[in-house]
Recover the amino acids of this structure.
């Protein structure tokens, strides 16, 4: 399929009434009728703007005050960004579920509300199976805008000079949505600096960006093992999800047994995709209130927890290859800087999937709650830190910035979705920008072990699930 035309002018998606100098973080989503009241619960189908609401006013706004190195002499010497692709169409699997729900609503629903009549007479099932997860125009803009914002946050690293000098490297998964996201990110920079005389290469590397496909143990013990997601299945059959399905049936005036958990998920996704792709507060959203949305979010968090995160050890260990790749780049930059050389790879931009980012965040120990997410503890997990709506919207990104603060004082700052986060287990005043050596010591066991080949060989590990 031909790649989308890339020479698209970067435009603001909403009316810009704020400027970077006047950064705000108090934008109220509830006051905007275009935004569904449940938008903050869309999990991995959510917009980046719900995670950073100030972008609704100014999509290019940045807040450099979040970067607080311990001294004024600190300077950035290397940046690695691991980025999820931008907003995409649903996959074929979900489109089939959506069509099934749409057919039911069209033929069986008998409620008389205006929004339902709109679904039955005006809304058409415009999603087609050949869309299959492809990047949409909003996804192009997601990456262009992210590129511009990161260049504003780190102007000494993401600069025209370094791009032209070959000091910015691009790596991507082979999936079309990732390749096109990479092209979009590059276009954001070349359009920003009006570069028309040169093109910049990218490398396709599925070993790094789709490691989960290459890890035999993960594929056999988790991905293709139905019992690995027992907690997810139990929750789908439990009282919270059953109540959501009954409320949907009540709103449509159809028999309870016609609304399955798949249909509830399809309805939630229809609301989410209509909003993410078209910025529309769809009538599909009327099938859920906030309580329902919280249950749907938990169901997705539960799935991500058990399939990609803390639920099974191999989920995070499958990312060992990416973990070592990140630290080898940091080490190389540190060594070159120490010897007085120019850092040869100032910036690495690696574009992959939610399934790329989440295992790595897990291996690094981010967003780990004291209790595991299970099918029975929904009520006690309302304050959980493991919330994919915050962690993994479209264009989610983990940025690691290495600073030289003079002498042997190298520091590492992690940012998730343009917000500082602290390495788990590192405390003290500089937890958000610790000494690089302290970070390496903290992850010493993983740096010495965590061998991808060993972890992923099935025969060396008896089945754990």
């Amino acid at each position: 399929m031909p790649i989308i035309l890339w020479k698209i002018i970067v435009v603001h998606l909403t009316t810009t009434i704020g400027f970077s100098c006047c950064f705000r973080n108090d934008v109220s989503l509830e006051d905007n009728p275009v935004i569904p009241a449940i938008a903050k619960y869309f999990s991995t189908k959510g917009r980046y703007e719900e995670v950073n609401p100030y972008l609704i006013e100014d999509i290019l706004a940045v807040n450099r005050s979040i970067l607080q190195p311990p001294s004024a002499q600190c300077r950035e010497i290397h940046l690695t960004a691991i980025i999820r692709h931008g907003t995409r169409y649903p996959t074929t699997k979900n489109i089939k579920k959506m069509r099934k729900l749409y057919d039911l609503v069209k033929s069986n629903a008998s409620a008389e509300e205006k929004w339902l009549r709109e679904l039955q007479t005006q809304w058409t099932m415009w999603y087609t199976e050949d869309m299959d997860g492809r990047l949409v125009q909003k996804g192009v803009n997601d990456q262009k805008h992210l590129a511009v914002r990161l260049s504003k946050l780190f102007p000494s690293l993401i600069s025209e000079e370094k791009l032209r000098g070959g000091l910015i490297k691009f790596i991507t998964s082979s999936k079309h949505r990732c390749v096109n996201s990479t092209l979009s990110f590059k276009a954001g920079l070349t359009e920003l600096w009006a570069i028309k005389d040169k093109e910049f290469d990218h490398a396709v590397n599925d070993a790094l960006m789709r490691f989960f496909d290459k890890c035999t143990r993960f594929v056999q013990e988790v991905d293709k093992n139905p019992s690995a997601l027992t907690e997810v299945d139990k929750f789908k059959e439990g009282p919270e999800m059953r109540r959501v399905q009954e409320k949907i049936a009540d709103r449509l005036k159809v028999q309870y047994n016609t609304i399955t958990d798949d249909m509830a998920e399809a309805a939630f996704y229809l609301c989410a995709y209509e909003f993410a792709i078209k910025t529309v507060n769809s009538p599909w959203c009327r099938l859920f209130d906030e309580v329902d949305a919280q249950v749907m979010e938990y169901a997705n968090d539960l799935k991500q927890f058990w399939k990609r995160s803390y639920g099974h050890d191999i989920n995070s260990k499958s990312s060992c290859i990416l973990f070592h790749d990140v630290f080898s780049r940091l080490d190389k930059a540190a060594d070159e800087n120490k010897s007085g050389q120019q850092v040869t790879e100032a910036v690495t931009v690696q574009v992959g999937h939610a399934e790329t980012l989440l295992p790595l965040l897990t291996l690094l120990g981010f967003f780990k709650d004291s209790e595991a997410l299970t099918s029975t503890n929904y009520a006690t997990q309302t304050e959980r830190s493991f919330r994919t709506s915050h962690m993994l919207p479209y264009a989610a990104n983990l940025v690691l910035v290495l600073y030289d603060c003079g002498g042997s004082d190298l520091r590492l700052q992690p940012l998730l979705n343009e917000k500082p986060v602290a390495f788990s287990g590192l405390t003290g005043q500089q937890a958000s920008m610790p000494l690089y050596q302290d970070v390496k010591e903290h992850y010493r066991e993983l740096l010495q072990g965590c061998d991808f080949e060993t972890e992923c060989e099935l025969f060396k590990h008896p089945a754990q699930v």
Observations:
- Residues 1-29 have pLDDT under 50 and may be disordered.
- The first helix runs from residue 48 to 51.
- The chain is about 40% helix and 10% strand.
